């Protein structure tokens, strides 16, 4: 992620655009006739067999879709043993009361290609708080040599990560798997190599430990970069109406981390049908799997916003990336001042969805971490971090 996750979205969109351009050019009257026939056949089909699921409704705009669906969705096929097992385990995990540790810790899980440019800033952040946190590093390209004692020996066994592919989700699951082995870990924070803390440790710790929700970014984007990536192959388990989008940088409760370990059913659907090049579309599992799954099985257990700030307001192919001159106390006050999290939809309406950051009945600052920062901003950030009490 050195050249950056920032550019990843750019590449994604570029691929998508070229995908459109590469579509075969339909020429001549033969194609028109074939097309008309195909459309007629499918319209007759829809008339005779009205669609029952919302995904089909979305495509065909059938009148039968406006009727309220009161009956719960019944899987149209028999589940495999593996799938039944996933259902049973997920239900049990959600029913169980969380086990409280006497020494609750926050697990900081770093997903990086190699070096961590902000290691010294994090070192400062962790100083004096031993015993209240654990660090895990998944370095997918090269194992970084660490200088901070909080990072030395914390690289976990890693594997290659391809942006936008399921290997990204696999790396996240690998981090959770390692962090779950410490029974004191109660909240699991996923961070990238370009993330920095916005507050001192105590603030972050209290924010995350005294809550029972996962801070998972989750919203409904009806545009091509949201619902447009849905594939009907995900039926019957994942319906269009439940398909959600969100940035991958989550924090997760122990219960949800366990749930992710247990899930093979939904994971398999995303591995097979949410991938780049699926039916001519590019679906990125890391932006859809966690939000969709948790929205389906435990909607009240997630906050619907991420505590990691990223600036998409320019609506460009990549988010805003901060350079040394941008690093001022004004910028940090601006980011830490948000009490409403913004989501930008990709449809023509370009709606800005506003999620107030409320939990346990109180409106709070939304963000604990921010990205994405160029490595050269380290010195300026270190200075600010030393000077400020709030940051
Ligand atoms: C979290 O705690 C609040 C208040 O204690 C409670 O109302 C809510 O149901 C809990 N949520 C979950 C997902 O356990
Ligand atoms: C998150 O959004 C869902 C609806 O999508 C809602 O049911 C849930 O209550 C929200 N979570 C919180 C903590 O407000
Ligand atoms: C941060 O700055 C942006 C751009 O100047 C502004 O639109 C936004 O309202 C500010 N946010 C806060 C919380 O002050
Ligand atoms: C931090 O404080 C030092 C001295 O107290 C000062 O020289 C420096 O300019 C401050 N840095 C920032 C970024 O405010």
TrEMBL record:
**Entry membrane topology:** Single-pass type II membrane protein
Could you tell me the keywords of this UniProt record? Glycoprotein, Glycosyltransferase, Membrane, Transferase, Transmembrane, Transmembrane helix
Q: GO CC annotations?
A: membrane
Q: Where in the cell is it found?
A: Membrane
Coiled-coil segments: none
Top-level taxon of the source organism? Eukaryota
GO terms of molecular function: glycosyltransferase activity
InterPro entries assigned:
BC10-like, Glyco_trans_14
Enumerate the transmembrane spans.
31-49
Q: What is its main location?
A: membrane
Q: What is this protein called?
A: Glycosyltransferase
Source organism: Lactuca saligna
């Amino acid at each position: 992620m050195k050249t950056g996750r920032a550019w990843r979205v750019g590449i994604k969109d570029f691929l998508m655009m070229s995908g459109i351009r590469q579509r075969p050019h339909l020429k001549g009257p033969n194609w028109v006739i074939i097309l008309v026939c195909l459309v007629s056949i499918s319209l007759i089909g829809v008339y005779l067999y009205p669609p029952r699921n919302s995904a089909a409704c979305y495509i065909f705009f059938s009148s039968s879709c406006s009727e309220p669906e009161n009956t719960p969705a019944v899987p149209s096929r028999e589940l495999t043993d593996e799938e039944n097992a996933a259902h049973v385990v997920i239900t049990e995990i959600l029913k169980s009361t969380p086990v409280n540790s006497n020494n609750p810790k926050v697990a900081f899980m770093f997903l990086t290609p190699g070096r961590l440019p902000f290691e010294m800033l994090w070192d400062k952040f962790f100083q004096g708080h031993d015993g209240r946190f654990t660090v895990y590093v998944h370095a997918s390209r090269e194992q970084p040599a660490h200088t901070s004692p909080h990072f030395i020996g914390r690289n976990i066994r890693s594997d290659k990560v391809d942006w936008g592919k399921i290997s990204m989700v696999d790396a996240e699951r690998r981090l959770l798997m390692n962090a779950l082995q410490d029974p004191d870990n109660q909240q699991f924070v996923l961070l990238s190599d370009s993330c920095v803390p916005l507050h001192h440790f105590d603030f972050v710790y209290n924010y995350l430990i005294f809550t029972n929700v996962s801070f998972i970014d989750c919203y409904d984007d009806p545009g091509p970069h949201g619902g447009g990536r849905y594939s009907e192959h995900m039926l019957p388990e994942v319906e269009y109406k439940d398909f959600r989008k969100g940035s991958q940088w989550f924090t997760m409760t122990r219960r949800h981390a366990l749930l992710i370990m247990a899930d093979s059913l939904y994971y398999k659907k995303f591995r097979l049908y949410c991938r780049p090049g699926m039916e001519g579309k590019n679906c990125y599992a890391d932006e859809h799997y966690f939000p969709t799954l948790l929205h389906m099985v435990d909607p009240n257990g997630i906050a619907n916003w991420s505590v990691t700030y990223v600036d998409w307001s320019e609506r460009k192919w990549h988010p805003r990336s901060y350079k040394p001159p941008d690093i001022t106390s004004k910028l940090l006050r601006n980011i830490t001042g948000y009490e409403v999290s913004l989501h930008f939809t990709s449809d023509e309406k370009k709606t800005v969805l506003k999620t107030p950051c409320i939990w346990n009945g109180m409106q709070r600052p939304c963000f604990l971490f921010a990205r994405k920062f160029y490595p050269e901003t380290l010195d300026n950030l270190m200075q600010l971090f030393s000077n400020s009490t709030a940051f």
